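Example 3.
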Amino acid sequence: MSLTGPALLHITGTTRLYLVVGDPIRQIRSTELFNRLAAEGGHDAVFVPLQLPSEQLKAAVPVLRSCPNLAGIIATIPHKPALLNLVDQASEQARLVGAVNAIRRDSDGRWIGEIFDGEGYLNGLLDCGVEPAGKSALVVGTGGAGCAVAVSLARRGVNRLCLVDTDDDKVESLVRRLRSAFPSLDIRRGSSDPSGFDIVTNATPLGMRATDPLPLDADKLTAGQVVADMIMAPPVTPLLSQARATCCTVVEGHKALLGQAMAISRFFGMEPARS
Amino acid sequence: MSLTGPALLHITGTTRLYLVVGDPIRQIRSTELFNRLAAEGGHDAVFVPLQLPSEQLKAAVPVLRSCPNLAGIIATIPHKPALLNLVDQASEQARLVGAVNAIRRDSDGRWIGEIFDGEGYLNGLLDCGVEPAGKSALVVGTGGAGCAVAVSLARRGVNRLCLVDTDDDKVESLVRRLRSAFPSLDIRRGSSDPSGFDIVTNATPLGMRATDPLPLDADKLTAGQVVADMIMAPPVTPLLSQARATCCTVVEGHKALLGQAMAISRFFGMEPARS
């Protein structure tokens, strides 16, 4: 299935509404994918972006909760952490990451939160033939994306996990939370030197702009390492370009999209039609 | 153009969002028409129903105002009167009717309200070859629909306008407002006897259910009178059925839909592609 393109939609008073809330939102394209998954699966649902400023989130939640046809929310930047505290129930994984990116309204009206960023990333690895279980992994960046990646790698069973961030507090806090949740796993702070890691992941924004410095010492990459980037656009970042030239296995950020969208659709109770 | 059916929609972060707010909303089909008008006109816009309980309207307005991609609102029952007082500017017509059914966000962020129920009704008459100017008219029911019909008939230049309602206060209030706005027009309370009127309009809900009594003395209709019904479903109400049997000109409620939708689309800055 292609990730973009229009969907043939019947939008009426019976349609379940899913809002994709963020600020800014102009970059959002995932609604096309969600709408096509819904339409092709025969579901009476529509996904629509809503640009909601952060300072309005708290006021928006009771209003949105009162709307019976609002069946769910997909949260993007900057609302993922704040929404964790505004749902009625969140998974252990979401609490560990400290964020939700999908909220479902259950039949009793309760809001159930989950985070799928890590699952999307894992699907991207697996699609490229990479199984993280038993491997060593370096994650650069411990913001929202980095937390989700680190938690998913820990859950999947890597044998060594190193985390890097220029923000001492953020990386120390994540190391602490992960050690508490995965006491038998070797988790520590790392450096920007990727030497010796099976899987190296960039979870910083560095690489979105052509003028960005590289997020890690790409000169120290060696053939056979796996290098993943969480950046969606450009699809091939300077890091991935150099990794490919070094004969690393490269996992582009957009590889996460389809798998994550299908997982979120299932979370919303929509079984996707596989094409 | 058919009034229902799916539309091929690209919904992304640049799409202008129009919410159709009401409670209940399950009966809403107009979003299909608006979405097709937008898609066929090449506009990056989507119309989506939102079921918003009345008690949340006041809390919802500041939240919705803060969302830059929310380009407008179409109000349905029960929000039309309350929204009149929540917009920054409303037309003289909307203030006279006491309601808005469309709100546009202008480039400076102000909310501009307008009422199109009367324009839809007038388009329906004109489409059936009926010109109200210079005619006499009886309007039964002075709720939201009846007010809009009465105001549109007065503005169009009927020479005599009679209003009927079982609620004395409502009908007296509308008569007073119309007399003040149209001092040269003969406006008074009427009865449910349609004798002698060129145009007879049902603006009550009577006729939606098969067991409803007729809204007026249909036995007194005579050939050549125009009988219009504001009820959309069923398309042919018992009143219209009896009027047709009496060789009256019949104007079905749904005749208002396409004209009103095109007028609202233009109000939203979308020039519809005429097919």
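DSSP finds nine helices and 13 strands in chain B. Chain B has a mean pLDDT of 94.
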